[in-house]
Amino acid sequence: MTSDDSFSPAAPLFTRPVEAAGAPRHVIPATETLPATAKQIIEDETMLDGNARLNLATFVSTWMDDDARQVYEASFDKNMIDKDEYPQTAAIEDNCWRMLANLWNAPDAARSIGTSTIGSSEACMLGGLAFKRRWQQARRAAGKDTSSPNLVMSSAVQVCWEKFCNYFDVEPRYVPISEEHKTLDGHDLAKYIDENTIGVVAIMGVTYTGMYEPVAEIAAALDEIQRTTGLDIPIHVDGASGAMIAPFLQPDLVWDFRLERVHSISTSGHKYGLVYPGLGWVIWRDAKWLPEDLVFKVSYLGGEMPTFALNFSRPGAQVVLQYYLFLRLGFEGYRAVQQESQDVAKFLSAGIAKLDAFELWNDGSDIPVFAWRLKDGHTHNWTLYDLQDRLRMRGWLIPAYPMPADLEQITVQRIVVRNGLSMDLAQSLLQEIENEVAYLDNLDAPMPREASHAAFHH
């Protein structure tokens, strides 16, 4: 401890040296600080962040119960990759992905293979890498060129797929969405596929709107393509959100391993898996779809265990939290939580649909997410960006942003309903929206603005 007497714990709060002078920003300070002082500075600075539960832009969990917090705290120090030191955490990871394989109707979960990841972005990268490696192996075996792989997906795909194509030298082929085809639905799919196509991505819960892409229709289109061309193209289902909604709310919807063409599925444990960030999962319907040369062996209880995630050291606590929730909620508990979120989403979308200013893009009937736009000709005095800013002043983060390529002239606003947004809070939010729309509609001149800016919406 420094000998500077002014560091005394008895000094009045906010008069201690670092607080009185301001904390350094870009250089590590030369001397230590009292723990209470450092803690107070951090609390003061993070206080300036928004209220996480009022952040309706993010899909990521912002609330867990008190028991979960205790489970989390007891697991802070566990390293997921250290399977020899933490064998039971490794076993819990194995339990979780096998539970998911069964939830997603793997024909034989004992033959499936899966892993936890830092998030669904890493899980998607692994799914894409498996596609690329298997395609390369088949091409080499046939004596064909392997230099030009491509991946087919919707123009509304999440940015992680753009990253995958950039980082791993794969050509992205985007099928544009339109007013007639609001998702990738198999329409004109043959125009984008050739012998260099490593796979097709189908999204269960499009980031822009929350809508499901009809995986069965995409698979049927690929069946027809195979019949006419001989090209056998697999599907990866990006179920970042929907893979933890559909099994509970739409159990009869066929989107998962019931479709033979679906080789792999990924999801975010930290989205509708209900766990704090960051946790993802990826599972292959059969281990044969994960190339052996992507798998490494690590020491485990005197033997070896496969590992094939991109990251090495990473937290084990979120995996333990996922298992806690599977045990705590069970199937019926998850169904109840997801149903409540959807009920809140449909309540809000119905209320917004009643306002003369708006028309819905979708209503939250897929995942509990919906988007709306301004009706043509309603006003020239304000935009959804103005409504976004007005709501932010009340603490609510509800993003407005342009739709993807070919629809970028359309601006939408979106609400993501997660566990923690109660019906009581939703009623307050709807009243706030009604009040702010009334305020904006009463303007007798356009709102001043430097430039409209889209808020974070991934």
From TrEMBL:
Q: Which domain of life is it from?
A: Bacteria
- What's in the GO CC field? cytosol
Chain positions with N6-(pyridoxal phosphate)lysine modification: 271
Cofactor needs: pyridoxal 5'-phosphate
GO terms for MF? aromatic-L-amino-acid decarboxylase activity; glutamate decarboxylase activity; pyridoxal phosphate binding
Entry EC no(s): 4.1.1.15
Lyase in keyword set: yes
Q: Does the keyword Lyase apply?
A: yes
Q: Which UniProt keywords apply?
A: Decarboxylase, Lyase, Pyridoxal phosphate
User: What GO biological process, any one, is recorded here?
Assistant: L-glutamate catabolic process
Can you state which reaction this protein catalyses? L-glutamate + H(+) = 4-aminobutanoate + CO2
Pfam families hit by this protein: Pyridoxal_deC
Family classification: Belongs to the group II decarboxylase family.
User: What is the protein name given in its UniProt record?
Assistant: Glutamate decarboxylase
Give the gene that encodes this protein: gadB
